[in-house]
Amino acid sequence: MSKAVLLLNLGTPAEPTAKGLREFYKYFFADPFVFDMNPVSRWLLRHLIILPFRAPRTAKLYQSIWTKHGSPLKVFADRVQQSMQASFADEGAAVLVLNGMAYSEPFIHQAMAELEQKGVTDILVLPMFPQFSTATTASVFHAVEQAAKLWRESPQLQFVNDLFAEPAFIRAWSTVINKHLANADIDHVIFSYHGLPEQTIRKADSLNYCRFGDCCQQISSQNRNCYRAQCVATTESIVKALAWKEVSYSIAFQSRFGRQVWIQPYLDEHMAALVEKGVKKIAVITPSFVSDCLETTHEIGIQYRQQFLDCGGETLQLVPNLNDDPAWLSSIYEIARRHLQQSS
């Protein structure tokens, strides 16, 4: 078997306990791509604050989303991998499909070692992060490249850089959204994306182009890898696929913490502003994720929903992620197969 698809994700705690979170955070908070600070400061943050205090608190949140099969992210990642493997087998294609996680098993280096052991020579690296960010995409790509350097004979690596722009990705989201909102009684739709500190985007902006405003309205050579611009492009592509003419919608960003300025508008403030304008029934869609996780199921489904109700809102409907919806399983296989064919 010479070809493989490596599906990349950040990972998830193995169990919803303080022990499970400490093991996960041990890797997550050690990543310089995510926490770009002095190594000593990063070590102090991890060992003096995160592991002893944050891990037990977050474990309780994970308990609220845990399923009988385990963490939703791991469950859906495995189902996507198994579905894609079966689809290649049905076509008689000798392609191996594996998952690789940045901060939990199966770790990226473990998956890469298995690919080498099984004689793979060509690897399609497919991150489950639709929009580019140094904290996600660049980090896992680096991990793959570092693992490849350990091979006796270097593999041929092909990276999928623009999942957000893949027509099949947009088609899958439009199908899922139609399924859940076709008859919904709502006033407004918010496309909510995971936030990033403005500083993170500025560091990746070698052309000093980013202004965090109108410059994000269109993808160009100047903002090619701007996360915020890609979020805007994702939204507009989905809305176009849905052929929305009179549906009111907007974009916001969630999950900020700390004292840094993050990309805006902030979801909590944006919801409050909508209520002041008389918007009482909203739906929230989260296209920076492909599967349900803590940031969607708990953060929006529980925390943000309560904030919306507290400020006078009436209904917040959270649209499920792509998960293992048949439209997504067929779409992600289509994407992988097309990229493999292009590399042949």
What proportion of the residues is helical, as a percent range? Answer: 40-55%
Please give the largest β-sheet.
4 strands, parallel
Structural class: alpha/beta
What's the total count of β strands? Answer: 8
Basic shape? globular
N-to-C SSE string, H for helix and E for strand: EHHHEHEHEHEHHEHEHEH
CATH architecture heading of the largest domain:
3-Layer(aba) Sandwich
Radius of gyration: 20 Å
CATH class of the largest domain: Alpha Beta
- End-to-end gap: 14 Å
Proportion of beta-strand residues? 5-15%
In DSSP terms, counting alpha (H) and pi (I) runs of 4 or more, how many helices?
A: 11
Q: CATH fold name of the largest domain, please?
A: Rossmann fold
Q: Order of strands side by side in the largest beta sheet?
A: 2-1-3-4
The chain-level mean pLDDT equals: 94
Q: What this model shows, in words?
A:
- The protein is 48% helix and 13% strand.
- It is α/β, with parallel strands linked by helices and 344 residues long.
- The chain has 2 domains: 3-161, Rossmann fold; 167-318, Rossmann fold.
- The strands form 2 sheets. The chain has a 4-stranded parallel β-sheet with strand order 2-1-3-4, with helices on both faces.
- Strand 3, helix 5 (134-148) and strand 4 form a beta-alpha-beta unit.
- Helix 1 (18-28) crosses helix 2 and helix 3 (72-90) packs across helix 11.
- The protein is globular, with a radius of gyration of 20 Å.
